[in-house]
Amino acid sequence: MAGTAGVVSASFANCHTATQTDPASKLKSTLSSGSSQKIGALPDHLLFAIPKKGRLNEKIVAMLKGSGFDYSRPERLDIAHCKDLPVSIVFLPASDIATYVAEGNVDLGITGEDIIEESGALVNVLIKLGFGKCRLSVQAPRGEVADVRQLAGTRIATSFPELAKRFFAKYENGKPTSVKVISGSVEASCGLGLADAIVDLVETGTTMRAAGLEEVAVLMNTQAVLISNPKTAYPELVETVRRRLAGYQTAQRFVMCTYNVHRSNLNEASRVTPGKRSPSVMNLDLTDWVSVSALVEKSKVASVMDKLESIGATDILTTGLLSSRIYD
Question: Do 127 and 139 lie in a common domain?
């Protein structure tokens, strides 16, 4: 969660196949190639890696813009410099970001918890971002597997070989599980006779069901997280970025609710709108009436307004937030 840093260690994963190229060499090549020299890596800039494409990229770019990161990405280049902070955004494959951060090639990154677990990257997890949520699960042809232990020692296709091997090793009884690494369309493996089951990510389950598969067991729940290198040379900048993103998260989750209420009903009203810490209360010129302001979760705002109205509150308004600096 915001404000907490945990060191995560594990082994390698993602819905992408692990690359044979050394990540450090790839990044140095990206930053020093002829096409990148037009904007080059700037000295004393924190490097912040984000996925270069896909749905995760779109959500992250929107979050960065909403958090005040003002940058322009030149066409066909994988690095962009922020205008108001010494931060450069580096666009990389999502499957490599945890390794880059762990090895210190970049200072910060956004990637999935599944990638960190699969890669064995040693990083600080700063914030769970609340999007990119899915499950890494064992999936088998519908109606054929009653217990996941039946699959130990069989053929498993996956983009997460280390996590799959670790999971099935618990159930093996002499015969090792054959884990085949597939980089894409893993769900087709069973239908084509390549595997008896798969280990893959499930978000809505639509693709899984269309392939005639069902979920047999869940290895882990995953979402996008902000991570940092434990030995970054820019700890203050890392904290600035973390606070900006945490403020944006709060702004997306809450609205400000303001209303007027008679002082005799203030305690009851405060229980309806406790805010993050406590509601703000101001006296009105009208005798025994006060104005109250409190943060309310967007998902609950309609029922909160109903309750306030039922206890005599008036002039109830909600206001959207663009960003915030509110700490637990």
Answer: no
Nearest to 293 by CA among 310, 307, 312, 274: 274
Distances (CA, A) of 213 to 34, 205, 225, 236: 47, 9, 29, 48
In a domain? residue 326: no
Backbone angles phi, psi at 312, to 5 degrees: 100, 10
Quote the number of domains for the chain.
3
Condensed to tens digits (0 to 9), the pLDDT of residues 57-78 reads 999 999 999 999 999 888 888 9
Question: Quick one: which H or E segment has residue 155?
Answer: strand 155-158
Element (H, E) at 28: helix 23-32
Structure tokens at 36: 């990148």
Please name which of 205, 242, 201, 197 lies closest in space to residue 222, comparing C-alpha atoms: 201
* Contact indicator for 279, 293 with CB cutoff of 8 Å: yes
Dist CA 93 CA 128 (whole Å): 20
187 Cβ neighbours under 8 A, 6+ residues apart: 139, 198, 200, 207, 208, 210, 211, 213
- Higher pLDDT: 55 or 199? It is 199
> 172: domain range?
134-222
Amino acid in position 311: I
pTM listed for this prediction: 0.80
Q: Strands 46-51, 87-92: parallel, antiparallel or unpaired by DSSP?
A: parallel
Distance CA 316, CA 69 (A): 33
Which ranges of 201-300 does DSSP label H, i.e. alpha helix?
206-210, 235-253, 266-272
Residue 234 tokens read as 């820019």
The secondary structure of residue 103, as a DSSP letter, is H
